[in-house]
Design a protein that fits this description.
Helix 4 links the parallel strand 6 and strand 7. The chain is an alpha/beta fold. The chain is built from 16 helices and 10 strands. The chain has a 10-stranded mixed beta sheet with strand order 1-2-3-5-4-6-7-8-9-10, sandwiched between helices.
């Protein structure tokens, strides 16, 4: 899933503007060179071995596809063969999100989502380069699951100096590899695996940031793409460089994440208020606003709890009870700006991939976005604007990243599946991506939550199953939530 750890809203009166900095190295003009495919790289030999009910293989691929016979890295791949070989259609490549989520452990845990397809497809996934067991990034003191947040008051020189430290540490620990971890190179790795499997085409399923992986593959290798499901889709243009005129806007602001988050939270509160026993009472929106206001400096932690609950409808009843148990100002109140800002935390692999895939604005541009987003979206706006603060001036940008175009002709329209109220990958992003691709259907699940993993729908599962079996079918436009 696309990771988005929230920031607290900031004490604007206590911070000073950031000193002028050069524009981010990732904010260069979009790459003009054409895609190069795998550039004649040797096809790896796959020696599949039994591993806990599946098959595993080590995949040797070029570090740099401009040097296809040069240095290599080794990737971890996992396959679950089709249960009915005689009825087998082909290979379904599953892409998980983050970015930075290892595919092999995720597919082991979540393979049940594809039970209806297991007889007809081999399920294949890879730990994307730089993640899991695929030559993971080494960020030295910033290793582990999470990179600590930048320290110091946000929007100050101290904050931005701290935000730059993980990138320098990742470059020191990872070396040359850090400059070759783009999703485009991961897509090239997938195509080498396709060639090694002897498949003319593959089908793709992407969750959250995995939609960017799948769409990148489909646009680099359209002739080898049979079908593609994008579940909880990013706006491809927004995540890459932004539409013309928005390149200096932070990625999640380009993707209108604040608006989607506010809408999801509001719908959750309205649903509660419409029930007979809402813990927050008949005016749940006002009560929730008062509760966040009363939280003061600790509102950052509270907003994070709200965000986690909005990822899946099953957590919402508990959220309403938790909010109702918190104190509110006697006469209501506005959202205060806490004295201690809360900055983003991400995994090392998240940063290594996200910071190279996206054009990131400068610190000064991000500072300006904080002010405007804060004014428009008091609870969540600063979080959205500064979510990728550690990508500013990232020291190793992959020259072979892919920034579009996204409309390569496909053998079948893509199937977009998106929750109506997804706080992380908004429905508007899916609709935008549908317009960017050469052809696509959009299926809306009437749910609050992020992807069908957290907002499951039997109807949607039946729809994407039917589509993957026959990509020429016309899926429904809407599905109810629930199994």
């Amino acid at each position: 899933m696309r990771s988005r750890v929230l920031l607290a809203v900031l004490l604007l009166a206590a911070v000073v503007g950031c000193a002028g900095r050069p524009a981010s190295g990732s904010a260069a003009a979009p790459d003009a060179r054409p895609p190069m495919g795998t550039n004649g790289a040797p096809v790896p030999a796959l020696d599949w071995r039994a591993c806990g009910g599946a098959q595993c293989a080590d995949v040797v691929v070029p570090l740099d596809y401009r040097r296809p016979t040069g240095p290599t890295i080794t990737l971890a791949a996992l396959r679950m063969p089709a249960r009915d070989p005689a009825a087998r259609i082909g290979t379904l490549v599953v892409n998980y999100g983050g970015p930075g989520t290892p595919g092999t452990s995720s597919l082991r845990r979540l393979a049940g989502r594809f039970d209806a397809l297991r007889s007809r497809f081999d399920l294949v996934t890879i730990d994307p380069r730089g993640t899991g067991a695929s030559s993971p990034v080494d960020c030295g003191p910033f290793g582990g699951d999470r990179v600590p947040a930048p320290v110091g008051p946000a929007r100050t020189p101290e904050f931005w100096a701290s935000a730059a430290e993980p990138g320098r540490a990742c470059l020191a620990g990872t070396g040359e590899r850090l400059g070759h971890l783009s999703t485009a190179n991961a897509a090239r790795d997938v195509d080498l695996v396709r060639q090694a499997l002897g498949e003319e085409t593959v089908s793709l399923y992407g969750y959250s940031y995995g939609t960017y992986s799948a769409a990148t593959y489909a646009n680099l290798f359209p002739a080898h793409t049979r079908a593609m499901v994008l579940d909880g889709s990013l706006d491809l243009v927004a995540n890459a460089a932004g539409a013309p005129g928005t390149e200096r806007v932070p990625v999640d602001v380009r993707a209108a994440v604040s608006e989607a988050w506010e809408e999801a939270f509001g719908v959750a509160l309205d649903r509660c208020a419409a029930g007979p026993a809402c813990p927050l009472g008949p005016d749940a929106r006002a009560r929730a606003t008062d509760v966040v206001a009363a939280a003061g400096p600790s509102s950052a932690d509270l907003v994070a709890r709200i965000d986690r609950a909005l990822q899946t409808e099953g957590r919402l009843p508990g959220l309403m009870r938790s909010l109702a148990a918190l104190p509110a100002p006697p006469s209501g109140g506005r959202i205060p700006l806490p004295a201690t800002p809360w900055a983003p935390e991400h995994s090392p692999s998240y940063l290594a991939i996200q910071c190279t895939d996206s054009v990131t604005p400068s610190a000064a541009d991000m500072d300006a976005a904080v002010v405007s987003e804060q004014a428009a979206h008091p609870i969540i706006g600063a979080s959205t604007a500064l979510n990728h603060a550690m990508c500013v001036d990232w020291p190793a940008i992959d020259p072979d990243r892919y920034l579009g175009p996204w409309n390569a002709p496909l053998a079948a329209p893509a199937l977009m599946v998106n929750s109506r109220w997804d706080p992380t990958t908004p429905l508007g992003d899916a609709r935008a991506t549908a317009s960017q691709l050469s052809a696509a259907h959009v299926l809306v699940v009437d749910a609050i939550g992020h992807t069908t993993l957290d907002a499951p729908s039997r109807c949607a599962a039946e729809a994407y199953t039917a589509y993957l079996l026959d990509p020429q079918v016309t899926p429904p436009e809407q599905c109810p939530a629930g199994l």
